[in-house]
Amino acid sequence: MNWYRRLMIFVTFFISCAAMALLVAALGTKHWADARAKRAKNPAESDGRIHFGLFEGRKELNVAYGWRTYEINVVDLLKSEPEFLIYGFWLGTVASVCAGLLFSTLSAIFAAVNTATTTSRCLAKVNGLYVWNFLAVFFDLLALCFWVGQFFMSIQYNVLSREDKENEWTSEYMAEFGYSFWYGWPNKNGCRQEKSLEIIFKF
């Protein structure tokens, strides 16, 4: 294998590592959804800020008496209040992000193997990098599709607990995608990986 080809595989390794870091950040951060909230009874005097990730989040409410902060446990809330999120979409998002992380890891491992040595095993060769990169990008896109569906079918209408809704709080049409959601966007890393692989096969 010539030096240029090894260099491009090495670039693929670093891109895979960057993708892994972003996916880990997406799993661990608490801003897949950000929202504001108002109390229908006194919207001018009330304000709320809510954000949550796939597992945890935070809610801050103020009814002219100062801010009160509450931690959100997404898993517990899904168990006690199934209407909070669409469970299938939430589970699909988590599973897809984890699968994307797995295949990004495999891509990084086999890119490192191909940089250091020449292997004859099918999925460990340069050809195999196409498989791992394609699967990583596919599951990243699938996770985003699940969360977009979650947003437009559930989150945009409500991110509050039953107790908050009973107290006349609403977040309807005041939600947006948080920065954690964009960590999973595969286009930049995925396309650069595919471009690197195209260059490899040209040489």
UniProtKB/TrEMBL annotation:
* UniProt KW keywords: Membrane, Transmembrane, Transmembrane helix
Q: Which residues cross the membrane?
A: 6-29, 84-110, 130-152
Gene3D superfamilies on file: 1.20.140.150
Membrane disposition: Multi-pass membrane protein
List locations, semicolon-separated. Answer: Membrane
What is stated as this protein's family in its record?
Belongs to the clarin family.
Question: What is the designated name of this protein?
Answer: MARVEL domain-containing protein
Source organism per entry reads Callosobruchus maculatus (Southern cowpea weevil)
Lineage, highest ranks first: Eukaryota, Metazoa, Ecdysozoa, Arthropoda, Hexapoda
